[in-house]
C-alpha cells in the first residue's frame, strides 16, 4: 500500500488459507460449492439442468437445490436449431441478469 505524501511504501499482507487446509478435499468441496453458487445464480450466464419449461419460462438447477429462473423472448436463439427443450436437458444460457437474479435469455445451447 502506498500512502500519498508519506514517501513510504508499506507491504500489506493478504490473508490466505494455509496449504494443508486449502488442499483438504472437504475444504475444496466447500470452496467450489460456494464459488459455484455465486457463479450460477448471478451474472449473465447460467449452466444447469432444465427442471421446468413452458413457452417463455424456463427453470434450471444450477447446483444441488439451487434454481434459476430464465425468461425467453421472441428472438431467443436455441442451439442446435430446431431443438425442443425438455426437463432433464443440460443447457448453457447467455443473456442479461435481472435484479431478482433471473436471466433474460438471448441464447440457449443444449447438450
Detailed description of the structure:
With 111 residues, this protein is an alpha/beta fold. The chain has a domain at 44-110: OB fold (Dihydrolipoamide Acetyltransferase, E2P) (Beta Barrel). 19% of the residues lie in helices and 38% in strands. It contains 2 helices and 6 strands. It has a 5-stranded mixed beta barrel with strand order 1-2-3-6-5. Strand 2 and strand 3 form a beta hairpin. The longest helix is centred in the first third of the chain and has 17 residues, at 25-41. The N and C termini lie far apart (47 Å). The mean pLDDT is 80. This is DUF5666 domain-containing protein. It comes from Vulcanimicrobium alpinum.
* DSSP summary, beta strand count: 6
Beta strand %: 35-45%
Characterize the overall form: elongated
If you average the pLDDT, what whole number results?
80
CATH class of the domain at 44-110: Mainly Beta
Strand order of the largest sheet: 1-2-3-6-5
Residue share in helix: 10-25%
The string of secondary-structure elements, in order, is: HHEEEEEE
So, the CATH homologous superfamily of the domain at 44-110? Answer: Nucleic acid-binding proteins
**What is the second-level CATH architecture of the domain at 44-110?**
Beta Barrel
Q: Do you know the CATH topology of the domain at 44-110?
A: OB fold (Dihydrolipoamide Acetyltransferase, E2P)
Radius of gyration: 20 Å
Q: Which stretches are poorly predicted, pLDDT < 50 over at least 5 residues? A: none
What does the main sheet amount to?
Answer: 5 strands, mixed, barrel
Number of helices: 2
Please report the distance between the alpha carbons of the first and last residues: 47 Å
Structural class: alpha/beta
